[in-house]
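Following up on my earlier thread - several people asked me to post the actual chain instead of describing it. Fair enough. Here it is, all 428 residues.
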Amino acid sequence: MIFLKAEQGPKGDALDIPGSCKLKEKEKIIMNLTLEMIQDAQKALEGIARRTPLDSAPKIGKNLYIKAENLQLTGAFKIRGAYNKIRSLTKEEADRGVIACSAGNHAQGIALSATKLGIKSIICMPAGAPISKVEATKNYGAEVVLVPGVYDDAAREAARLSKEHGYTFAHPFNDPYVMAGQGTIGLEILEQLPEVEQVVCPIGGGGLISGIALAIKSLKPSCKVIGVQAATVPSMYESCKSGKIVTVPDGDTLADGIHVLTPGDMTFDMCQKYVDEIVTVTEDEIAAAILALMEGQKTVAEGAGATTVAACIFGKVDTSEKKTVCVVSGGNVDVTTLSRIITKGLTKSGRITEITTKVADKPGNLIQVLQVVSECGANIISVNHEREAKDSDVGACLVTMVLETRNQDHVDQIKKALEVKGYSLLEK
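Reply from S.P.:
Thanks for posting it. Predicted structure:
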């Protein structure tokens, strides 16, 4: 049984996407997705995928451990499932070449794996995918086709090209070989921390958590497996809540790696069977988690990878009594957006705040309000002094201050000090 919590969750109709299976075929494939299949993948990945570290994270949370797949060879876990899929191809399939759709991490995994095995690869990527991921995919040897829209649009184009040219379609999540490869993370977690009590995993299409959950539940049924989605695109959350595959409306998210509007049918069934709970996190929470990982673990996570940590530090997952492993699935964050993400994280954690107040338009009054802030120990980043703001009274002006603060308690202290001095605070 799955218990779900969410910040929000629009519903939609199910969408038939490339890689989905009809019921009879699906049942056969799921039966074949076994612990032995994952163990076989683990052997095949020796020398291909790194055995990533699992470290405690006391600065981030109690009983918290990080499985650092952001330190994987391609910067994300996807190399595991991608290589396991590519090695499973028949000679005829390999000769035709492979095609995949991806926001970036699966793309890099397929590109590298195909190149290693001497196979042509074509990757359809959403046009909005981070430039760093697009360029990395090209550098690993793939031909990249940028498709307007999101993952689902790239999936449709990949299906079209596959049919037109005879390419073998390598689905990013709805494939038993891919799930088996991802499941090797579950085996490593149990080897590195046998006493683990719950594992928290990001969910996009569901391939990662499907493999991990099967491995964990097969070897340690008492260990909880919890999935995390971005609240703006909670497709697996809504699907499990509805008891059927649901396509959610598109939404913006920092977690581009799990930006999937429709989960796979196989992964949906695996989540229903093996996943204990699914929660969602907001964009501000994701940004704050990226910052927490940078400061607390000295590691860089992309939005999707940071969702698990966000769920723990913001109380969506209780770690007070259970040894908890957060799978940080990737670290391929575009450096051009990192500054914006950090600012967002600092704001969420009360490290940067913006305060607007009315000040009488008289000489020396601006200095007086800044003096109050200074006495509270805040660092002033910028000040905007508007004498003709539409919200100001005649004879008054608006002062907007961006401040560097310690935490939310410090922000509250500054606001109280301003109010005590007679300044009214405005929401902008």
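The first strand starts at residue 3 and ends at 4. That should answer part of your original question.
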